Here is the input.
Amino acid sequence: MLRRTPPRLQVLDVFKTSPVRHLTADEVYRQLLERQQPLGLATVYKVLAQFEQAGILQRSDLGHGRHVFELPLEGVTEHGHLVCSNGQVAEFALPHALKDELVQLAEQQGWDLTGFAITAYARPKHTPQAPDSA
Ligand SMILES: [Zn+2]
Here is the structure.
């Protein structure tokens, strides 16, 4: 259980009130600046890592090195992302069986599963051009 320190409450408040679900550490840092509650970037990173470890935030890689943090989806332990090249992101619940399988797989290797993320990629459907009427 994490203590309720001002930096932790500030960072949590950003996630609870942000209109955007997926935030990078840099975006959290900038939102705190805009709210006139500045924290050092190192502190932001530290708090995000603590929240991830405590299961308060989920960390995901949306591709192209974009690591985001977000509050878990309601009623869903883990969710994946479908990232479109147009910048949109769709979320989907991952089946519990998948996690069980990964836990087992790690165990067979003599490891403890510490986390996982599923990201899939897409592009807008190609709509055929109308043939030239010439
Ligand atoms: Zn998400």
